[in-house]
Amino acid sequence: MKRDIVSSNWFAGEPYGGKTKAWKVLAASLKAVQDKDSSSAADEGGGGGGGLAPAWVVLNPKAVKIDQLYGYFENDEWRDGILARNFRAVSG
After folding, report:
1. What is the pLDDT averaged over residues 3-11?
2. Which pairs from 83-88 meet CB under 8 Å and 24+ separation?
3. In this structure, are 69 and 36 located in the same domain?
């Protein structure tokens, strides 16, 4: 059974609130499910479970200016910000 899951998650909260642990557990869980699907499909003679490994980007939005984060217009041309570039990079 092949499942294509495309989603994103944002973790926001207080310092030492468990955000890092939460995304690491989520990534490990997704990888474990993917590995299980791949091995069971191979046992059944299928082509494997396929799918992409979990990808993540960690950033501190307080460390950059709002234009750098989201994007901005420069000489009537749109310049992507960090978020747009990272979404494109991890999505394919």
Report:
1. 69
2. 86/57, 86/59, 87/8
3. no
> Total domain count for the chain?
2
Same domain, 2 and 41: yes
Quote the tokens at residue 91: 């999505």
Q: Taking Cα atoms as reference points, which of 87, 86, 81, 85 lies closest to residue 66?
A: 81
pLDDT reading at 88 higher than 80: yes
Task: Report the predicted TM-score, pTM, of the whole model to 2 decimal places.
Answer: 0.57
First-residue to last-residue Cα distance in the chain: 22
Give the helix ranges, DSSP H, for the chain: 19-43, 66-70, 82-91
**In angstroms, rounded to a whole number, what is the distance separating the alpha carbons of residues 21 and 17?**
9
Structural domain for 91, as ranges: 57-92
Judge if 36 and 75 occupy the same domain: no
Whether residue 45 sits in one domain with residue 17: yes
